[in-house]
């Protein structure tokens, strides 16, 4: 898998190296995560007009009122999730597929849900181009999770609900970890890690963040 990823977008390798260096300087320590950020070509996930900005540490628009997350936040959430060395991960909010690709380069199985049909199809095309075969994508309501594939070792949510959806807690394996931004106000959202221990859920604040709101239902 890694060879096929590395063969794409090599013209941007130098700018990717600079991005990885900045991430390390900002506290990302997990070498697995840094290597994934180095390997996955972010410019393939944004519009061509924005490709020159793909390796800036900033969120960028991807249409439908959505964004591709800032690389630091992608790395921060992924590093938190990798602390439990998961084999099976659920992602809520596929978007353009960039975070999905990062996860797929690190774990055995990735399941990802996107509520906007146009983004779901775009992500499918993007991820097929990278020849990642350990991903399953679904167009649907992220609030409901993916019960038929539960339990998951880890769940990553890429949009902010006002409160943690109960279905996601139910679908978390014992010992598993949920990484999620929470809060209705985009200027005061908390990025939380929630570890399941039996019927208890232990929360830890990672940092303050700003995400698009998590909406229910699905959109054609």
Report on the structure:
The protein has 220 residues and is of the alpha/beta class. The protein has a single domain, classed as Rossmann fold (3-Layer(aba) Sandwich). The chain contains seven helices and nine strands, in the order αααββαβαβαββαβββ. The strands form two sheets. A seven-stranded mixed sheet has the order 5-4-3-6-7-8-9. Strands 1-2 form a two-stranded antiparallel ribbon. A hairpin with a 2-residue loop joins β8 and β9.
Sheet-strand content, in percent, reads 25-35%
- Main sheet? 7 strands, mixed
Content-based structural category: alpha/beta
**Name of the CATH class:** Alpha Beta
CATH overall fold name: Rossmann fold
Order of helices and strands: HHHEEHEHEHEEHEEE
The amount of helix comes to: 25-40%
In short:
This protein has 7 helices and 9 strands; from the N terminus they run H-H-H-E-E-H-E-H-E-H-E-E-H-E-E-E.
List the helices and strands and how they pair.
Layout: H1 2-6, H2 13-25, H3 31-39, E1 60-63, E2 66-68, H4 71-82, E3 88-92, H5 98-104, E4 109-114, H6 117-129, E5 135-139, E6 152-157, H7 166-170, E7 172-182, E8 189-197, E9 200-209
Parallel strand pairs: 3-4, 3-6, 4-5, 6-7
Antiparallel strand pairs: 1-2, 7-8, 8-9
Helix pairs in contact: 2-3
Can you tag this structure with a few keywords?
two-stranded antiparallel sheet; Rossmann fold; disordered N terminus; alpha/beta; 220 residues; 29% helix
């Amino acid at each position: 898998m890694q060879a096929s990823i590395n063969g794409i977008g090599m013209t941007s390798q130098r700018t990717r190296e600079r991005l990885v260096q900045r991430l390390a300087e900002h506290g990302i320590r997990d070498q697995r995560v840094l290597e994934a950020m180095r390997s996955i070509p972010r410019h393939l996930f944004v519009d061509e007009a924005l490709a020159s900005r793909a390796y800036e540490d900033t969120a960028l628009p991807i249409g439908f009122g959505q964004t591709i997350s800032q690389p630091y936040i992608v790395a921060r959430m992924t590093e938190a999730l990798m602390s439990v060395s998961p084999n099976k991960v659920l992602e809520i909010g596929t978007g353009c597929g960039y975070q999905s690709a990062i996860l797929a380069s690190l774990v055995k199985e990735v399941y990802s849900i996107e509520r906007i049909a146009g983004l779901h199809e775009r992500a499918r095309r993007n991820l097929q181009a990278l020849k990642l075969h350990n991903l399953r994508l679904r167009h649907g309501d992220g609030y409901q999770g993916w019960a038929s594939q539960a339990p998951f070792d880890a769940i990553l949510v890429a949009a902010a609900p006002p409160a943690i959806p109960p279905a996601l807690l139910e679908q978390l394996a014992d010992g598993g970890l949920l990484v999620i931004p929470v809060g209705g106000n985009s200027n005061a959202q908390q990025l939380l890690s929630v570890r399941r221990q039996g019927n208890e859920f232990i929360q830890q604040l990672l940092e303050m963040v700003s995400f698009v709101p998590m909406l229910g239902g699905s959109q054609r």
